[in-house]
């Protein structure tokens, strides 16, 4: 078993695609203290239920945050809510959704008051993201 590809967003936060129960056990064993689920339940058939994943994560001593975001429709307010989670969560942390893209968008929006759009685009590109439309949104004046 191997974990989904991890994208490094900061020293304390990584993002990835959908996690399984096995992935959560492996992350807990690696010392991850917080999981942030950015995927709505029942987005696609066969997707693990967030409540069962939350129960598992919490049984392993991890913090769990559920901030579901509709794919392709990440709002500034959701980025602000993500920023609040980042301020209070134990670290290190992993955020996940279907592919990890929403997590990257939320992270960038959570940082938009402290960092320039160009700086955020560079950070997302370094993490392996290629989202030209979202990059334009970040750099729009």
Automatic annotation (TrEMBL):
One of its GO terms (molecular function) is hydrolase activity. InterPro entries: BLH_phosphatase-like, Prot-tyrosine_phosphatase-like. CDD domains: PTP-bact (cd14503). Residues 6-112 form the Beta-lactamase hydrolase-like protein phosphatase-like domain. Coiled coil: none annotated. Pfam families: BLH_phosphatase (PF04273). SUPFAM superfamilies: (Phosphotyrosine protein) phosphatases II. NCBIfam families: TIGR01244 family sulfur transferase. This is TIGR01244 family phosphatase. It comes from Nitrincola tapanii. The lineage of its organism: Bacteria, Pseudomonadati, Pseudomonadota, Gammaproteobacteria, Oceanospirillales.
């Amino acid at each position: 078993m191997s974990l989904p590809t991890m994208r490094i967003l900061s020293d304390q936060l990584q993002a990835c695609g959908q996690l399984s129960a096995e992935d959560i056990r492996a992350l807990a064993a690696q010392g991850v203290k917080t999981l942030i689920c950015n995927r709505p339940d029942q987005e696609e058939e066969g997707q693990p239920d967030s409540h069962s994943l939350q129960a598992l994560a919490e049984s392993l001593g991890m913090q769990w945050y559920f901030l579901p975001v509709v794919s392709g429709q990440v709002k500034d307010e959701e980025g602000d809510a993500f920023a609040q989670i980042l301020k209070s969560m134990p670290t290190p942390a992993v955020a996940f959704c279907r592919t990890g893209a929403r997590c990257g968008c939320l992270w960038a929006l959570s940082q938009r008051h402290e960092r320039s759009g160009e700086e955020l685009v560079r950070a997302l590109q370094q993490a392996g993201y290629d989202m030209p439309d979202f990059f334009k949104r970040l750099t729009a004046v």
